[in-house]
Amino acid sequence: MGVSGTVRPATEWELSSLVAAATERGKPIEVMGAGTKRSVGRPVQAALTISTTGLRGITLYEPTELVMSAQAGTPLADVEAQLATRGQMLPFEPIDLGAVLGEAAGRGTIGAVFATNLSGARRVATGAARDHLLGVRAVNGRGEAFKSGGRVMKNVTGYDVARGLAGSWGTLAIMTEVTFKVVPRPEETATLVLSGLTDDLATEVMCQALGTPFEVSGAVHLPQVMVSRLRTPEVRDIGKPVTALRIENLADFVRYRCDKLREHLAPYGKAEVLGNDVSRAFWDEMRQLSVLQADDRPLWRISTKPTSGHKVVEAIRQYMPVDAFYDWSGGLIWLEVPVSADAGASDIRRVIAQYGGHATLVRADQAVRAAIDVFQPLEPGTERLSRGIKAAFDPAGVLNPGRMYALS
Amino acid sequence: MSSILLPEPNADILARRDAIIADLKSLVGGEAVVSDEDGRRAFETDGLTAYRKMPLAVVLPQSTEEVSAVLRYCHRNGIKVVARGAGTSLCGGALPAEDAIVVGVSKMNRVLEIDYTNRTAVVQTGITNLAISGAVGKEGFFYAPDPSSQLACTLAGNLAMNSGGAHCLKYGVTTNNVLGLKMVLMDGEIIEIGGPYLDSPGYDLLGLIVGSEGQFGIITEATVRILRAAEHARPMLLGFESSEAAGACVSAIIGSGIIPVAIEYMDKPAIEVCEAFAKAGYPLDVEALLIVEVEGSNEEIEDLLARLVKIAEPFKPRTVKVSGSPAESAKIWKGRKSAFGAIGRISEYYCMDGTIPLKQLPHVLTRISEICGSHGLKVANIFHAGDGNLHPLILYNANDPVEVEKAERAGADILKLCVEVGGCLTGEHGVGIEKRDLMRHQFSETDLLVQMRIKSVFDPDWLLNPAKVFPLAERVMLDRVA
Prior knowledge:
The structure holds two protein chains of two kinds.
Chain A: E1 6-7, H1 12-24, E2 29-32, E3 48-51, E4 58-62, E5 67-71, H2 76-84, E6 88-89, H3 110-115, H4 123-126, E7 133-140, E8 145-149, H5 161-165, E9 173-181, E10 183-184, E11 188-195, H6 199-210, E12 216-222, H7 224-227, H8 233-236, E13 242-249, H9 251-264, E14 272-274, H10 276-288, E15 299-303, H11 309-317, E16 323-327, E17 332-336, H12 345-355, E18 358-363, H13 366-371, H14 380-393
Parallel strand pairs in A: 1-3, 2-3
Antiparallel strand pairs in A: 4-5, 5-9, 6-10, 7-8, 7-9, 11-13, 11-14, 12-13, 15-17, 15-18, 16-17
Helix pairs in contact in A: 11-12
Chain B: H1 11-15, H2 17-28, E1 33-34, H3 37-41, E2 57-59, H4 64-76, E3 80-84, E4 100-104, E5 111-115, E6 120-124, H5 129-136, E7 141-142, H6 155-161, H7 168-171, E8 178-184, E9 190-194, H8 205-209, E10 218-225, E11 227-228, E12 232-240, H9 243-255, E13 262-267, H10 268-278, E14 288-296, H11 298-312, E15 319-322, H12 326-337, H13 339-346, E16 348-351, E17 354-355, H14 361-374, E18 378-384, E19 389-396, H15 401-420, H16 439-442, H17 445-458, H18 472-481
Parallel strand pairs in B: 2-4, 3-4
Antiparallel strand pairs in B: 1-2, 5-6, 6-10, 7-11, 8-9, 8-10, 12-14, 12-15, 13-14, 13-18, 16-19, 17-19, 18-19
Helix pairs in contact in B: 10-12, 10-13, 12-13, 14-15, 17-18
């Protein structure tokens, strides 16, 4: 069923009635926000698609308490625009998968940001989307509307169900409202850039930088081929691999911290410092993943120990030619691989098993996604628990069946 | 305090006590099993000392495998298990039951691995909170969550309760600082989740387990984030004539875009007691005191403190005092962190732990003093103002049963008030037995069902940390509708 057949309930009650009716008849439901990440995961066979975009609007914003609530279908762009009016932002800088998935950029919803735990470069310093989720309202696969958490920063009343829903890709419940922590936007951003480093030296630099007291809030390393795809000329024209470290704070503090960090990293070469505007343009490109190509090549996201990242890439290169860039000081790898029947899954997973971590196939042909595990296969113990949790929320298995795992 | 009902112990289990103890000794060795009355007495309560229950026996395993053997045995024999760290819980989270075994992790307290490059440490969970920072301090690193009991409390307890602390305004609470776990499920299965990377595959089991109050399993090892400490930190004191002025000042600070590493609030009764105890230099002529701490280089600190003084000006602070030396800073924090102990020297107290939206502070403080006044009780308030976590300490005479009951009633009314104004029953202490029966004030029947079904996934027979978190009747409902 196409997007035209999509139902957009306007209230939580309407949504829960729809789910209850579908559950009663055992009818699977595809769950989405704006549908921009629809092509991630194993294809969902569903007679009914429910979109949360009918649930729209910011319901609470207290800038002096650093908290906002919004209905799940509220466009992320609206949330960020509203925060900007008070000099604030989302702490975790959610990446925008739009471009790499062949969709328009900037169209996602705030609910989907949490449902997929989308986090960007700032995660190394301030945490992921899941770390800033304070509360949710949601409808589970039984059609029950429930809440978890609340609107205050510190809350350990009952189990942390809200966090359990983060990153569950609509397979446990459909979020109807999310409440989250926000932070002030830093006055000034600067970027220290080292060029020409090999992947292993770059990893050393990034890890060292994050081990200093200067609060580095982004550490990425781009190979030459990806540098050449940048739109920010000041960085693109470097024409060599680029290692970028972000410092954010009050303007005077940023100057001091850049000087100290540059001194600290002097053995690795002379670092250039990018000013505020260029820095913001560059990190915005990181957020849009603009150095990745919007083509047919399968795209993997690998999470591992920072010092293992470059070893993982090197090991995968024994099996296939790949382009890779590193975020999270080396611990997050975005990997473009050649088109093949399994998108390189068996070789990549073998390497991951050796080094630790996990891999998700973010982009691939539908036939490939139907044939292989898109998400990292689980260990028997966690698989049994995950199966139980799926059954607790959605015993009939109607919500996004099979999208993450075949659990029911 | 004794109004909270606890289930009748299972007579069959009590009758089998000698055999059970013999079995446990054969599993983990006689040394690791505490069965005599004097030995067990040390475990009969936790930080909520009004409630006491002698456990059937206490087991202090040395390894994950021993924990697994004990849990497998208890599971097969239908014996309840209460997990215990240091027993500092203020909500009765570690209160034993007469028909339950206490499994304490205190002997498993080693640091297994420190990786400064990847900024992680792997530790056994019986380690104290402060010992983690102690182990990495020489390289300038620290473990961020800092509950007031950090000298004594274990990481195991912090994980169970998702503990916070004074500095979580900037650094987050336990759940934000843990990357991986090794946990023993009730049937003895050992599972590992996450590791030295920033996210885990599949559902966020880590997120569900942290804060599950020892009801999902016993966590024996954890991979935690360690952070590089700031160059320096320095607190300042801001004293105000009213709670309104102090609360408005906190809003102004946060609204300005400066997020201090901590903003602590004390009211007059708390200031007086803490000053008498710690000689921290707190002003005695103010109604409300803020301790605001900032971090950075010395120049940055000077700059930030000057900005804060300016932000505070419109609220007419009666005291503005920047710490002049590391020794003075240490005293200022000593006064705050020993508040519970200092107040404990003048009276028994009942420590509450609600969270409220910051702008409700003046209203909530007024209502708290009305509530306590109507019961003829005094109260002192300590507040993590930056994140809204309020600790009213209700003073009472423990030898007067009528006053004890009044304190408990006043406490319940205060927590209901926190929920009414948009907050919650507990910000960092947990539900335990203490707030179990108040859960219906914050959650609907469905909200509780959703949580209880998750409990059943991890522990289908509900043997782990029984009679905590959920009202006893809710359990009956789960069996009926799940």
